[in-house]
Amino acid sequence: MSSHTPSKPNYFAIGDFRYAIRRFLNFSAGAARDAGLEPQQYQLLLAIKGLPPSVDPTVGTLAGRMVIRHHSTVELINRLEARRLVRRSHNPRDHREVFLRLTPSGECMVEQIAAVHSVELQTAGRELIATLEEILKPADRPVRKFRSVSKHRERS
Fold first, then answer.
1. What whole-number distance in Å separates Cα of residue 88 and Cα of residue 98?
2. pLDDT of 81-97, one tens digit each?
C-alpha cells in the first residue's frame, strides 16, 4: 500500500477542461459540416492523413484510431469511397488485407478543414493546455477561479 494519499480532485479545473474539449469538438463538427462532411467522415479522413508512415492504413487501425467498431468504420469508408474521397487497395503481401488511401479530392478536403482547425486551435489549444495544467497542479497550490464567460463564440 502506498503512503501517498491521492489529493482531492480539482472539480472546477476538470469541469473547465471538459467544457473546453466540448467547445472544440462542437467547433470541429461545425467545420466539417460547413465543408459538406459529417464529423466522423472528417475524423476518418484525418485519421488516414495523420497516420505515421510506419503504420498501415487498415480498417482495423483506423477503427482503433477512431475508437469505433470495425463495421462502423467500414460504413464510413463506404460513404467516403462513394464520394471519391478515399480509395481501397489490397495489401500486395496479403490480399486479404485492405489499405485505405485519400484520393486527391480527399486530400484537398482534409487540408481545407484542418486549416480551419489550426486557426481555432491557436486559441482553443491554449485554453485546453491551461485547464489541463490546472488539473495537474499539486494539491498545495492555489486553485484558479472558475470562468463562467467564454471568450470563444459558440457554434450552434
1. 6
2. 999 999 999 988 888 89
117 CB-side CA count, 13 A: 20
Dist. CA 148–CA 150, nearest whole Å: 7
Cβ atoms 37, 79 nearer than 8 A: no
Partners of 87 in the β-ladder? 101
Nearest to 112 by CA among 56, 40, 34: 34
What the block records as the C-alpha cell of 83 is 464520394
* Cell of residue 126, nine digits: 491554449
pLDDT digits 0-9 by tens, 21-74: 999 999 999 999 999 999 999 999 999 999 999 999 999 999 999 999 999 999
Task: Show the domains of the chain with their CATH numbers.
Answer: 11-136 (1.10.10.10)
Cell of 25: 469538438
- How far apart CA 38 and CA 34 sit, in angstroms, is 9
**DSSP code of 50?**
T
Question: Whole-structure pTM over 0.70, yes or no?
Answer: yes
Query: Quick one: which H or E segment has residue 23?
Result: helix 11-34
